[in-house]
């Protein structure tokens, strides 16, 4: 298994090293990385090479928090490798599940895990542990700086995805003792050392927090993702349309005309091609909205106004009318019914588990 990360995650490396009176090129060459690749932010780099680079930089520049400083310099570039996950996700929970799946697949092969433990959800980072197992027994590298860099990049990514309302409960690090004094200033929450896993601890309720698709810093991801969709070919037209609907709904741009524009075709051409597959665009959009509405209404959050926005409705009244058409009642009553059904199901499962134990 060769763990890879996008070179875009070294955005800001040249500027940071220069600010610290170091030579970016010399550090890159000593870590067997082509400086031109980092200058152009092109392609992928092995995680072992990046770990060596960040460790060397911290040591040679006498900068104990280099990993976190480099993470902070990323900005929206921290999401660069997760454009598909961002643009298909309307909530933090959906994004995390999509990101875990995407990062675990080639070319990344980075193991990240999402586990729910009561009222808290743990986002566990196993990437550095896996890297340490792959290193030769006589390796000098103890990639603590890279551990902090990857965890720091993850925080920056989530902050750009969810906005200023995003908040962790705490951070767990396997590092036995602090390398510097800036952890809580960076993460904004308590940081616990010597833990079983590197992990973010989140309140499980925060997984329903909506992503900020309208954030201007995320628009380049939309453009890149649409370009990737268009390269998939005619055979996946329906999938392209569905994914574009997911992406464009929160921007209130999920009309037939807008989707056709993104696909570079006349709207009548798109209608005809869907009709050839016995599909109607308006039915696809309505089905996706209903499925998403049912998902969001199954919990206490998000608020009705946010659900309406995430489904692409310009007015709350339009969402209310759609709920009457889908479910025969108001959104609030649907939420109560769905939550009651979920509570009954959980109670039945708990009772069955108790009987099994007895």
Main β-sheet: number of strands, strand sense, barrel status? Answer: 5 strands, mixed
Q: In which order are the strands of the major sheet placed? A: 3-4-7-5-6
* CATH architecture classification name of the largest domain: Alpha-Beta Complex
The pLDDT mean sits at: 86
- Low-pLDDT runs of 5+ residues are none
CATH topology of the largest domain: H-NOX domain
Number of helices: 18
- Counting helices, strands and paired strands, the structural category is alpha+beta
Q: What is the helix fraction of residues, given as a range?
A: 40-55%
Radius of gyration: 23 Å
Number of strands: 7
The backbone outline, from C-alpha atoms, is: globular
Which CATH class of the largest domain is shown? Alpha Beta
Count of spatially separate domains? 2
Question: What share of residues are in beta strands?
Answer: 5-15%
InterPro entries: AraC-type_N, Homeodomain-like_sf, HTH_AraC
Protein name: AraC family transcriptional regulator ligand-binding domain-containing protein
Organism: Microbulbifer echini
Keywords: DNA-binding, Transcription, Transcription regulation
What layout of secondary structure does this protein have?
Layout: E1 4-6, H1 13-19, H2 24-30, H3 35-40, E2 44-46, H4 47-60, H5 66-72, H6 83-87, H7 92-103, E3 112-117, E4 120-125, H8 127-134, H9 144-162, E5 170-172, H10 183-187, E6 191-192, E7 198-203, H11 219-230, H12 237-248, H13 256-263, H14 267-276, H15 281-296, H16 304-310, H17 316-327, H18 331-357
Parallel strand pairs: 5-6
Antiparallel strand pairs: 1-2, 3-4, 4-7, 5-7
Helix pairs in contact: 4-9, 5-9, 12-15, 13-14
Organism: Microbulbifer echini
Keywords: DNA-binding, Transcription, Transcription regulation
Pfam families: Arabinose_bd, HTH_18
């Amino acid at each position: 298994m060769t763990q890879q990360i996008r070179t875009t995650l070294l955005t800001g490396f040249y500027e940071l090293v220069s600010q610290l009176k170091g030579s970016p090129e010399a550090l890159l060459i000593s870590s067997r990385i082509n400086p031109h690749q980092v200058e152009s932010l092109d392609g992928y780099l092995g995680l072992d090479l990046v770990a060596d680079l960040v460790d060397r930089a911290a040591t040679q520049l006498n900068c104990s928090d280099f990993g976190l400083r480099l993470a902070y310099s990323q900005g929206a570039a921290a999401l660069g490798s997760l454009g598909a996950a961002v643009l298909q996700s309307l909530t933090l929970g959906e994004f995390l599940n999509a990101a875990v799946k995407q990062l675990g697949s080639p070319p990344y092969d980075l193991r990240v895990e999402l586990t729910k433990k009561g009222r808290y959800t743990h986002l566990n980072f196993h990437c550095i542990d896996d890297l340490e197992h792959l290193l030769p027994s006589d390796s000098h590298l103890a990639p603590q700086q890279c551990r902090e860099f990857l965890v720091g990049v993850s925080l920056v990514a989530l902050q750009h995805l969810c906005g200023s309302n995003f908040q962790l409960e705490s951070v767990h690090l396997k590092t036995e003792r602090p390398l510097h004094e800036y952890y809580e200033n960076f993460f904004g929450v308590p940081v616990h050392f010597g833990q079983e896993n590197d992990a973010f601890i989140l309140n499980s309720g925060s997984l329903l927090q909506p992503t900020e698709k309208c954030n201007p810093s995320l628009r380049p991801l939309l453009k890149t993702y649409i370009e990737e969709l268009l390269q998939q070919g005619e055979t996946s037209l329906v999938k392209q349309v569905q994914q574009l609907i997911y992406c464009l709904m929160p921007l209130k741009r999920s009309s037939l005309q807008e989707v056709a524009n993104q696909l570079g075709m006349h709207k009548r051409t798109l209608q005809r091609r869907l009709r050839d597959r016995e599909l109607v665009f308006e039915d696809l959009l309505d089905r996706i909205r209903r499925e998403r509405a049912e998902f969001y209404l199954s919990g206490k959050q998000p608020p009705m106004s946010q659900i309406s926005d995430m489904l692409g409705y310009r007015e709350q009244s339009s969402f209310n009318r759609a709920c009457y058409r889908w479910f025969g009642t108001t959104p609030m009553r649907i939420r109560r019914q769905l939550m009651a059904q979920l509570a009954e199901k959980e109670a039945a499962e708990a009772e069955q588990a108790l009987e099994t134990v007895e």
